Amino acid sequence: NAGEYKVDTVDFETQLRLTETMKNTATGSTYWSGGNWLDARTNDADYIRGLGENDNKLLIFKRESLHKWDERVLRRVKGAPGTTSQRSVTNIRENTYYFHDTGIYRFDGVTSTIISRPIQDWIDGINSSNYTEIVSWPDGDLLYIFVGNVTNTIRDINVTNCLLIYDTAAQAWNIGRTNEIIKVSTVAIESNTRTVSIATITDPIESSTRIVYLGTTTNEVLTWHSGNADMLIPIEWQVSTVYHFPTEPYNVVEFDRIEAHVIDGRGMSIYYKLYGTDQIDRNWKPLGDIEDDVTEIVFPRGSFGRGVAFRAMENSTRQPPILSRIDVFYKDREARNL
Fold this sequence. Notes:
Blueprint: E1 7-12, E2 15-18, E3 48-54, E4 57-62, E5 66-69, E6 74-76, E7 90-92, E8 95-100, E9 103-107, E10 112-114, H1 120-124, E11 135-139, E12 142-152, E13 157-167, E14 172-177, E15 182-198, E16 201-216, E17 221-223, E18 229-230, E19 233-240, E20 251-263, E21 269-275, E22 285-289, E23 294-298, E24 304-305, E25 307-316, E26 322-335
Antiparallel strand pairs: 1-2, 3-4, 4-5, 5-6, 7-8, 8-9, 9-10, 11-12, 12-13, 13-14, 15-16, 16-17, 18-19, 19-25, 20-23, 20-24, 20-26, 21-22, 21-25
């Protein structure tokens, strides 16, 4: 037995200072540091997949359980699953967000809640081989989650290099995509110092900028939100509306034309779907292109339906356009009594 010793200081990464001189002088001895570890619910056929931090507590993620440690007691978060991917764990303000194969969860320091029900069709379409490869990163109030290719044939969903985008302030979801396969992300603080001169007084002013860097499968590092192109490929801009019913949901009208009000939107394309009497359009149909700040576009003859939804798309290296509103003009056709 080589004896038991207490560590006084950690001088270097490979050197410890003890509180007393070692009595054992034999070479090749092995010592076990037994006071700086803890068990995280052993004997459950699971293992630690990731770590995080929330409210000065260490979060320990297994696949099917989440634990928090406050330097004294280890507690399991009741009813909370863990994660399949360490790189999906991201903090935005007081909340910790992470991926599990059942959805996206938000841990608020006490409980963990699934928040991805509105996009469950996309969650269901994630390939199980990508569960361990999910990557997320923060951007202000927005949470970006790269989930790889998403395919859900039943729901007619097929997105290459899919991004799930969550607005934490509005609690709203959006779907996007990238031109690259993202493998890792990190946030860096870039310090900028500039000199401001007032009369004869010169003072340096320091500011800091948060920059997100993304690593790809092609060994490239990308700067998030820098420029209007993705690897020299124009970034597609797209926005879709829900169905709008001009009168009542059971009234059939003939859609005549629209007036689209935009800013810097020349070249934007408008598509539409009709909520018909017997069926709902599954595919977007082209309606026309934007030519000015206010553009009138006429529907094809016989565009009957109860409601209409719109999608606007633009693809260029210019600044993203602004779609202010779409005014819809229609003619009454009939009304059904319920």
